[in-house]
Write a structure and sequence with these properties.
The protein contains 27 helices and 31 strands. By secondary structure, it is of the alpha+beta class. Among the domains are: 174 residues, Immunoglobulin-like (Sandwich); 97 residues, Sandwich (Immunoglobulin-like). The strands form eight sheets. The protein has an eight-stranded mixed beta sheet with strand order 6-5-9-3-2-12-15-14, with no helix packed on it. Strands 17-18-19-21-20 form a five-stranded mixed beta sheet, with helices on one face. The longest helix is centred in the last third of the chain and has 30 residues. It binds phenylalanine and zinc ion (ZN). This is Aminopeptidase N.
Length: 876
């Protein structure tokens, strides 16, 4: 960048001056270049009021314009202006045909945006602004066009040629080449365009839609991965059925395709009729995939499928509306996963992610509302805020409207806006119109950043039998937003009497939604004989931080009696957090720690209780993560958090050793692997027990872990055993097992990623030098985002004591990587930068070191927009 990149603003939005009736593309793919021929039929947009508007097309600087003509007349330099990312034609006719040929270089495209090569195949990634790296086109989501695409390539190397829609023609060309033409009848923005050419195998199935149409389903991968596609296919069919039943949404083309690619910046992409997936989100089988891997495949396949309506049929007007499709679609996939597996477990997992990572983002320098007002690089806004908080906001709408009116609202939204590019405001309006409810104040969730805080206090008047709950809300400032207006917060709650029974509330039920709309509000409950214990934020009804001065005994009481599964888990978390925070505050390396016995007895009763859902037992017994404890700290004490977690885990293991071993044994069944919810639950409980036992560092537990590794018929059991041994102090066993694992799995790239992450997160001495060594290993590929994440991101996020080493070596390491990656793959570079952006959360010494590295990146030369935005906002 010679000039400082500029922000673009929502307030500057203008309707496009031209509409694109049809887009005809022809790709000629070669080993050293690709030629793209485009034929665009363009008309003036009646909605644009400008008198003689110019035609503006995007085109990345890497695109070579070979020829351009208008209605058959070749244009010269005098007929258009090419400046930065824009090509402008001053006064074109009302209706005309523009043809162009561009030359691009997929073979050397390391940014993985636009057309690029993943291994031996060609593929595309166009969201958000990748299409401008292919040809000249209005690369904005409100310009929708009908695409017809011909792909031509060498027949031997690229037997499979795919694009959006239906194949309509194919043929042979000279020089051993062939071509296929695809037509997609649904108008779509350029970001949903896709093309794949490669030597691919596929599995095929069929789905009959609710109106009786036949849809062919194909999932493509390299031949070696053909045995890992069945689970994605089952998930896809389940998702298609679920969307018909839950939202009345039917699939609309005759064919639905998914392609697995090795090189991919994100998880997956919802291109119309031709999803492109990171292999990590689509390949799965028992031998190579962990339980959480299976669940990710199910969720991501569903997510991309659901986008066909929430994203493709109804798309975004501009990128400030990103959460319109992403928040809604995450909400939809979360509900799907909840229906397929355990609802409470899914909720616990999502809330954990939100409370650790999204809350941290909301409190950091990149904080933004779910509908941002400005950005420099849109790729930096594919965030937990847009996705996860966005989903929470949709969830709150459903809570406020109730299920039936929410469905009425979504029906209206899809019907009213089918084929349009719309805004989050249109979504809310549809919900209001369908329900008759007023969501004016609720809209603040869309334009105010930061995590609201609820401070709840109570009072009991025994004589009057009256219980008062006072709720105060506030929200800390975020960049550009000092003062916030009051949010409309649905606070689901219940009351428990002294026997642990649910009290009937004014609505006649045991759970009620309090509408918190003011900065301070009091809710009164009468007819109570004793002071109840409140159960607050049931089901995590709003993405807020809730403070209520629970006594530890009250938390144990809630753990035992609350009828809300989420709150039972949360009570256990709060108890552990409260105890651990006290230990952290009091931490000194030479001072002995003492564990409050109540945590152990609470855990013991959960282990002993009959009939509890095993998945929930293992969630309850899982200590709050390092990341969560850090998020809760004003100033993160990395060493104290690490030491306290180790101490608490060890103490629990010492005191519950026999029970843990017994539960391990009970759940160590010799039955064939299945990724169903019950089996996943059983394995997670068993493996949790094993991890407590391994914290004892005894020979007996080492033998148990090694035995599990040896006999495992699935990657879940094998991986857990390997992690535990690899991270233990039994160094020679660790070495031997890691070597064995690599030898078994060196041919399976995704398994090798596990092997890399296990080593990158190994907390033993010498972590950074091991990481540097790993980066020299033949299994590492510095151009592949999955490998980069497995080593670098894992080290920075999951090996805190080493990343935060007081000599600054961890920070320097990350900054060096960012500087290298900045030109190679800007999206990945900017994402990997996140840990450094949190510098204000650490001690003065660490702050200085982190800040110095951010400054070094800033001064390192030509920064991409992506990295520039994150670095400059972090240094404010
Ligand atoms: N739109 C994709 C999804 O959430 C994510 C994505 C964004 C993929 C940008 C690639 C590039 O489903
Ligand atoms: Zn999405």
């Amino acid at each position: 960048m010679s000039q400082e990149p500029k922000a673009i603003y929502l307030k500057d939005y203008k309707v496009p001056a031209y509409l694109f009736e049809s887009t005809d593309l022809r790709f000629e793919l070669f080993e050293d270049e690709a030629l793209v021929h485009a034929e665009l039929v363009i008309t003036r947009n009646p909605a644009c009021t400008a008198s003689a508007p110019a035609l503006e097309l995007h085109g990345h600087e890497s695109v070579e314009l070979v020829s351009l003509s208008l209605d058959g007349r070749a244009l010269t330099d005098n007929d258009y202006v090419r400046e930065g990312e824009m090509l402008t034609i001053a006064t074109p006719p009302e209706r005309f045909c523009l043809t162009s040929t561009t030359r691009i270089h997929p073979e050397s495209n390391t940014a993985l945006e636009g057309l690029y090569k993943s291994g031996g195949m060609f593929c595309t990634q166009c969201e958000a602004e990748g299409f401008r790296r292919i040809t000249f086109f209005p690369d904005r989501p409100d310009v929708m066009s009908v695409f017809r695409t011909t792909v031509e390539a060498d027949k031997t190397r690229y037997p499979e040629l795919l694009s959006n829609g239906n194949p309509v023609a194919r043929g042979l060309a000279d020089n051993n080449r062939h071509w296929v033409t695809w037509e997609d009848p649904f108008p779509k923005p350029a970001y949903l365009f896709a093309l794949v050419a490669g030597d691919l195998q596929h599995i095929e199935d069929r789905f009959v839609t609710m109106s009786g149409r036949n849809v062919t389903l194909k999932i493509f991968a390299e031949e070696k991965d053909l045995d890992k596609l069945d689970y994605a296919m089952t998930s896809l069919k389940n998702a298609m059925k679920w969307d018909e039943e839950t939202y009345g949404r039917e699939y609309d083309l005759d064919i639905y395709m998914i392609v697995a690619v090795d090189f991919f910046n994100m998880g997956a992409m919802e291109n119309k009729g031709l999803n492109i997936f990171n292999t990590s989100c689509v390949l799965a089988n028992a031998a190579t995939t962990t339980d959480s891997g299976f669940q990710r495949v199910e969720a991501v396949v569903a997510h991309e499928y659901f986008h066909n309506w929430s994203g493709n049929r109804v798309t975004c007007r501009d990128w400030f509306q990103l959460s319109l499709k992403e928040g809604f679609t995450v909400f939809r996939d979360a509900e799907f996963s909840a229906d397929m597996n355990s609802r409470t477990v899914k909720r616990v997992e999502d809330v954990s992610l939100l409370r650790t990572a999204q809350f941290a983002e909301d409190a950091g320098p990149m904080a933004h509302p779910i509908r941002p007002e400005s950005f420099i690089e849109i790729s930096n806004f594919y965030t937990l805020t847009i996705y996860e908080k966005g989903a929470e906001v949709v969830r709150m709408v459903r809570t406020l409207l109730g299920e039936a009116l929410f469905r009425k609202g979504s029906d209206l939204y899809f019907e009213r806006h089918d084929g349009q590019a719309v805004t989050t405001e249109d979504f809310i309006l549809a919900m209001e119109d369908a329900s008759g409810q007023d969501l004016s104040q609720f809209r603040a969730w869309y334009h105010q950043a930061g995590t609201p805080e609820l401070h709840v206090s109570d009072q009991f008047d025994a004589a009057a039998g009256e219980y008062k709950l006072t709720v105060k809300q506030s929200c800390p400032p975020s960049p550009g937003q000092e003062k916030k207006s009051a949010f409309h917060i649905p606070l689901a709650m219940g009351l428990l009497n002294e026997k642990g029974e649910e009290v009937e509330l004014p609505n006649g039920e045991t759970t009620q939604i309090l509408n918190v709309t003011e900065f301070e509000q009091t809710f009164i409950f009468s007819g109570l004989s004793t002071k109840p214990v409140p159960s607050l934020l049931r089901g995590f009804s709003a993405p807020v931080k809730l403070f209520y001065p629970y006594q530890r005994d009250e938390l144990m009481f809630l753990m035992a009696h609350d009828s809300d599964g989420f709150c039972r888990w949360d009570a256990a978390q709060k108890l552990a957090v409260d105890i651990m925070q006290a230990l952290i505050a009091d931490y000194h390396p030479d001072k002995a720690m003492v564990l409050d016995g109540r945590l152990v007895s609470a855990f013991r009763s959960v282990l002993d209780a009959e009939g509890l859902d095993k998945a929930m037992v293992s969630k309850v017994l899982t200590l709050p993560s390092e990341a969560y404890l850090s998020e809760l700290s004003d100033c993160v004490d990395v060493d104290a958090i690490d030491a306290v977690r180790k101490f608490v885990r060890h103490s629990i293991a010492v005191q519950l050793e026999d029970r843990l071993r017994a539960v391990y044994q009970e759940n160590d069944l010799d039955i064939a692997y299945s990724p169903d919810a019950d089996s996943v639950a059983r394995r997670s409980l068993k493996n949790l027990c094993l991890s407590y036992l391994m914290s004892l560092e005894t020979e007996a537990s080492l033998q148990l872990a090694k035995a599990q590794y040896e006999k495992a018929d699935n990657m879940t059991d094998m991986q857990v055993a390997l992690v535990l041994v690899a991270h233990s102090s039994f160094r020679s066993d660790a070495k031997a097992l890691l070597a064995d694992f690599y030898q078994r799995w060196s041919g399976e790239s995704l398994v090798v990623n596990l092997w890399l992450s296990i080593q990158a997160s190994d907390p033993n001495e010498g972590a950074l030098s091991r990481v540097l060594e790993l980066m020299q290993h033949p299994a590492f590929d510095g151009k592949n985002p999955n490998k980069l994440r497995s080593v670098i991101s894992v080290f920075c996020a999951q090996n805190s004591t080493h990343f935060h080493a007081l000599d600054g070596s961890g920070y320097r390491f990350l900054a060096d990587r960012i500087i290298e990656l900045n030109s190679q793959n800007p999206q990945i570079a900017a994402r990997m930068l996140t840990p450094l952006t949190r510098w204000k959360k650490f001690s003065a010494a660490r702050q200085a070191l982190m800040k110095a590295e951010l400054e070094r990146i800033r001064e390192s030369g030509d920064l991409s927009k992506d990295v520039f935005e994150v670095v400059s906002k972090s240094l404010v």
